[in-house]
């Protein structure tokens, strides 16, 4: 457990950042009045997400590997963070969908139907908690692995 203390800390920071991002999206109206812009704006979460991974791997390099970390060590550290975030992701999605923005699914269904992007039946089957939980369980590790693979290149070092 001591070996992954840093990864646990940064996974919790990552989850907190994602929840804060959802609160900011909701407060900015991207889950209701500006829902037409949501698909674009939500992608900007990649910036703080990548930053969290950079800070996590730099922390691991400095405080666990004494300033010298190989690509493999950084990659493994990032994978551990990704695994923890993936395990927590259904809870994060539940909190987002039931507490932070409980009307999001209703709003996105209405928007999708109104704009002729989907039939009501398709929209209802796609925009719901079960569907989003499945998507987050698939999407989280994919994006985490890609982010880790890239960030580990830039955070590796040799003494």
Structure report:
By secondary structure, the chain is an all-alpha fold. The chain has one domain (2-155). 75% of the residues lie in helices and 0% in strands. It is built from 7 helices and no strands. It has helices at 5-27, 38-41, 46-63, 71-100, 104-114, 120-126, 129-155. α3 crosses α4 and α4 (71-100) packs antiparallel against α7 (129-155). The longest helix has 30 residues, at 71-100. The radius of gyration is 18 Å and the shape is elongated. The model has no long low-confidence stretch (mean pLDDT 97).
Query: How many helical elements?
Result: 7
Query: Which residues form runs of ≥5 with pLDDT under 50?
Result: none
Overall 3D geometry? elongated
Which range best describes the helical content: under 10%, 10-25%, 25-40%, 40-55%, 55-70% or over 70%?
Answer: over 70%
Q: What letter string, H or E per element, gives the SSE order? A: HHHHHHH
Q: Beta-strand percentage?
A: under 5%
Report mean pLDDT, rounded to a whole number.
97
The separation of the N and C termini measures 26 Å
By secondary-structure content and strand pairing, the structural class works out as: mainly alpha
Topology:
Blueprint lengths: L4 H23 L10 H4 L4 H18 L7 H30 L3 H11 L5 H7 L2 H27 L4
Helix pairs in contact: 1-3, 1-4, 3-4, 3-7, 4-7
């Amino acid at each position: 457990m001591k070996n992954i203390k840093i990864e646990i800390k940064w996974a919790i920071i990552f989850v907190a950042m994602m929840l804060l991002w959802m609160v900011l999206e909701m407060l900015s109206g991207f889950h209701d009045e500006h829902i037409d812009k949501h698909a674009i704006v939500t992608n900007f979460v990649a910036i703080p997400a990548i930053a969290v991974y950079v800070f996590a791997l730099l922390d691991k390099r400095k405080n666990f590997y004494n300033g010298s970390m190989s690509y493999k060590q950084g990659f493994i550290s990032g994978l551990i963070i990704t695994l923890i975030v993936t395990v927590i992701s259904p809870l994060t999605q539940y909190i987002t969908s039931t507490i932070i923005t409980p009307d999001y699914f209703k709003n996105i269904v209405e928007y999708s139907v109104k704009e002729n992007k989907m039939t009501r039946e398709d929209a209802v089957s796609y925009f719901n908690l079960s569907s989003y939980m499945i998507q987050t369980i698939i999407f989280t590790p994919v994006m985490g692995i890609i982010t880790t693979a890239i960030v580990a290149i830039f955070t590796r070092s040799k003494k």
